[in-house]
């Protein structure tokens, strides 16, 4: 992507639903800045799914549960993220849980992913550990 494309992308609303622009929200986290909380990591991972950034998803996944590869479905469009609950996951916690719904669309229908994700903080960095999908 050229510089103009990067600038235009950074000025769009962040896909995570915060209401802020990407460059002031999840953009810096996708670029390597540590997420301050488990919820912020969850939001940045949703944004990575929406933008098709498989590399970030793998980097933010804990090494003990990270898959070797990640194939994203190019036909799946992520439409909205709703955070339902958080447990722990603050800047001084070691663990956190974020429950969310992510609304998506594929060529045939709309769908909702409901997940209770677990996160761990190691070395000052939050990582996605795993999740229960229902």
Outline of the structure:
The chain is of the alpha+beta class.
Can you walk me through this structure?
Residues 37-131 form the YchJ-like middle NTF2-like domain. This is UPF0225 protein RL72_01388. Belongs to the UPF0225 family. InterPro entries: NTF2-like_dom_sf, YchJ-like, YchJ-like_M. By secondary structure, the chain is of the alpha+beta class. The chain has one domain (3-133): Roll (Nuclear Transport Factor 2, Chain: A). The protein is 24% helix and 34% strand. The chain has 4 helices and 4 strands. It has helices at residues 3-10, 27-30, 38-51, 54-59, and strands at 77-88, 95-105, 110-122, 125-133. Strands 1-2-3-4 form a 4-stranded antiparallel sheet, covered by helices on one side. Strand 3 and strand 4 (125-133) form a beta hairpin. It starts with a helix and ends with a strand. The mean pLDDT is 94.
CATH architecture: Roll
Strand element count: 4
Helical segment tally? 4
Strand adjacency order, main sheet: 1-2-3-4
Please bin the fraction of helical residues.
10-25%
Shape: globular
Using the coordinates above, name the CATH class. Alpha Beta
How much is the radius of gyration in Å?
Answer: 14 Å
Return residue spans where pLDDT drops below 50 for at least 5 consecutive residues. none
State mean pLDDT (0 to 100 scale). Answer: 94
Secondary-structure element pattern, one letter each: HHHHEEEE
Beta-strand share of residues: 25-35%
The name CATH uses for the topology is Nuclear Transport Factor 2, Chain: A
Main β-sheet, in a few words? 4 strands, antiparallel
Distance between the termini: 37 Å
What structural category do the secondary elements indicate? Answer: alpha+beta
Number of domains: 1
């Amino acid at each position: 992507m050229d510089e103009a494309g990067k600038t235009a992308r950074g000025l769009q609303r962040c896909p995570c639903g915060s209401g802020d622009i990407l460059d002031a929200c999840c953009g810096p986290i996708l670029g390597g800045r540590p997420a301050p909380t488990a919820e912020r990591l969850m939001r940045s991972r949703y944004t990575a799914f929406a933008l098709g950034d498989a590399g970030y998803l793998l980097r933010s996944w804990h090494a003990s549960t990270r898959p070797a590869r990640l194939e994203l479905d190019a036909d799946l469009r992520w439409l909205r993220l709703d955070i339902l609950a958080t447990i722990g996951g603050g800047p001084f916690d070691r663990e956190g849980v974020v429950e969310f719904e992510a609304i998506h669309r594929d060529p045939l229908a709309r769908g909702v992913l409901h997940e209770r994700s677990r996160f761990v903080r190691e070395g000052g960095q939050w990582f996605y550990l795993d999740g229960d999908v229902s």
